[in-house]
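> Could you send the SpoIIAA-like prediction when you get a chance?

Sure thing. Input:
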Amino acid sequence: MSTTFSNVHLPKFTGSKSPQAPATDILSVSYCPHHKLLYAQWERFTTSAELRQSIRLLARAAAILKAELILVEIPGHYNVPEQDREWAKKFMYDALKYTSIRRVARLAATEMNHAMRHALRSLEEMPYEAQLFNDRNEALRWLLREDYVAFSNEAFIRVPLQVNLKLVRPELKGRGHATVPVAQSQSGNPTNVTETLPALISIETDFVSITLDKVKSLMNIRWKKAPHSRQYRYGMLKAARALIEHRLERLLLNNQRLGVLTLEDQGWLITAAQQMLPKMNLKKLAVITSSDSLQQMSSEHIGNKLKQAAVNYKAHYFLSEEDALGWLTMD
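Output:
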């Protein structure tokens, strides 16, 4: 049975109404929940900033949707400077290292020049299987293995580049891919925390949630919205003091809704961290960033400064909370 991709180019939208597809002439993304296959088609490459942002969004979609297979179709006029190629290789390695991705197939147009093909083949050295193909059916056979013959009638879901899960997840749930519910936690008053904490407590404000799990030796800081400078410093100091007092070993920092820190707050965080980290028992730090390029740049800047301080813990960046928690709790 031959495999067709006719329904990939015009995939179905989720929901009772069909929302307008995101307007982009750079990248289109679709998802097949049955095979956990993410399909991305590059239309063109322009500026370095556009390329990097679209790669971030693709990686974020793969992480959030828990994709296991990726097929990336690259146009023949693919021509990216070496600096951007090296950045893309490192970013995809780090971003997808702790995700569910098992295999990635890249489909290159026959007219692509030899130098670009060689550059794409260097991307095969990844923590998942990766290969370059000229033929789409060959790529699909390699990705799907024994499931290849059952693939032709699968419907794809168009994924907005910003990956609005309110649009995507109802369709996945209807196909037996419901999201995992989050366990309930206790609520607390951030201005009235008792000295002896129970095994699990959540300190809530309108801008941040700080959860301590003493059994797992884990703290979870989740920013609900972009805070003011005073609010940000309050939340981070509250969390730091609890980390020191209770000797917690694992920290999950979810910055997806944090926004971009001001230069003043970045400087304050670096100084405060350099003073307080030596007092902590921290072993692992997982940071969840948004797809915003400015936030990722500020995170990299802060991370580099803390590395210079010779802090003694492992740190990794993630695009989804599930992957971050999986790494944190993996011993």
